Every structure is written in structure tokens, then in C-alpha cells.
Amino acid sequence: MVHYTPDTAFFHNKSRLFEKSVPYYDYFVTTKSFDFEKYPEGKTILVPQGYNPDVHKPYNSFAEKFREVVFIGLYEQYRGKVISKLLNAGIRVTVAGNKWNRFKDLHHPLLEHLGDGLFGEAYARVISSSLFGIGLLSKRFPELHTTRTFEIPACGTALITEKNKETSTFFTDDEVIFFKNIDEISVKIKEYRKKMDSLKTLTEIGRQKVIKGKFSNQEILQKVLWQIEL
Q1: For the segment 140-163, what is each residue's pLDDT rounded down to a tens digit?
Q2: Reduced to 3 states, what is the DSSP secondary structure of residue 116?
């Protein structure tokens, strides 16, 4: 029996029932490097997050994109701070996800709020309609990449992501837009707005990276099955 989760099992989603059931599993598969040592030694496989190529794909050509920046995910104070900085820098931002209602009530003219959640094709279509997608990490636990890390470029949109030891393993500076501090984000967006041909090239290269890098959910699962010899 194999336990496979894309979420943390020992922080926000901690479960006493899961912890009691640990001895009954043959293998554990986790996407969280900070959780790895908490699982039983010798029975745990670390894999990256992935994307679904049937859903996370371009729905708009580059010329058809009509949104500027998008973030879809749970509101956190850090994420709100990032979005506020972009809005105050004159950048249009679209958000969706739980707990953005109070932030939305600030009524910033450059903010588009699409509700408490977007899922499946609706999620992918909004990302695809945007020039930039921000893969903001959670600060509730020490994650270093998320599903957005691969879903955004898979949708044919330029990924803006924090540069760390995991994201810099997956991508190069030619494939995504890295930042080391949040003040860099608006600067880099404005730079790319002035050179749309370069942004289009980066977007295309980023999409090819997630395809050729075999980051689809099916390809990741195939590697897991090979490792456990099934």
C-alpha cells in the first residue's frame, strides 16, 4: 500500500489518524522536501509536483492574452503584501481563492477578483489568459515549490517564482522569471512589458521545459512505479 500526497503531512494538514496508520504503508511518496525525514527511512520517495497536460495547456495564444498578472490560491499575509506592491506599482492583477474577500474590499481599480476558487479548466483558462503567473509559495510551512510551479508554464504563461534550491533546479533564468525579494517583481514585469518578444520567447521556452522535463503527473507516477518495481 502506497501513500501519495502533494501536500504536507506534518504541518498544516497534520492528522493523528494518518500518523497512527504510518506502520501499515509499504511506501510513502511526498513532494515536500522538508517532510522527507519525518517519513520512515527507506520507505519514502521524494518527487516534484506536477501538472495535468489534458487541463494545464494554452487556451490563448500569446497575442490573445488580455490579463496581465494572475495569482490563484489561498490568501496569506505575505501573498497580500506581494499583490499590494504590484497594484501600487500600476500593474493589473487578477486573484482568486479563499480568504481574498477582505483584500478585495479595498476596491483597488487595478484588481480583478474572480471569487473563492477556480479549479480544473476554469483555473487553467484564467492562467492562460494572463501574461504572467505568480507561483507564490506558502509561508505557513517551508515549501520550495508548488503545483503552480509547473501548471503556470504548462498553460503557456510566464512563471514568476521565488529563486531557491528547488526552483533553480527545475528551471533556468531563460525559462522563468526569478525573484529573490518581492521588490524585484514589479521591476521585472515592467521590464518585460517593454520587450514583449523576449517575454513571448521565455514563455515558449518555459512551456517546453515542463513538457521535455517530464513533469506531468502521469510521467511522475510512472517513475514512482518503476522505483517500487510495480
Answers
A1: 889 999 999 999 999 999 999 999
A2: coil
> Within 13 Å and on the Cβ side, how many CA atoms surround 155?
31
Q: What is the DSSP string of 49-101?
A: --B-TTTSS-SS-GGG--EEEEEES---HHHHHHHHHHHHTT--EEEESTT-H
Over residues 165-207, the pLDDT tens digits come to 999 999 999 999 999 999 999 999 999 999 999 999 999 999 9
Q: Which residues contact 102 (CB under 8 A, 6 or more apart)?
A: none
DSSP label at residue 23: G
CB 37 within 8 A of CB 53: no
Which triple of cell numbers denotes residue 17?
489518524
Residue with the three cell numbers 474577500: 101
Helix (H, G, I), strand (E, B) or coil at 45: strand
What's the predicted TM-score (pTM) here?
A: 0.94
Q: Write down the architecture of domain 62-212 according to CATH.
A: 3-Layer(aba) Sandwich (3.40)
Q: What is the spatial distance between Cα 203 and Cα 58, in angstroms, rounded to a whole number?
A: 11
Domain borders along the chain are 2-46, 62-212
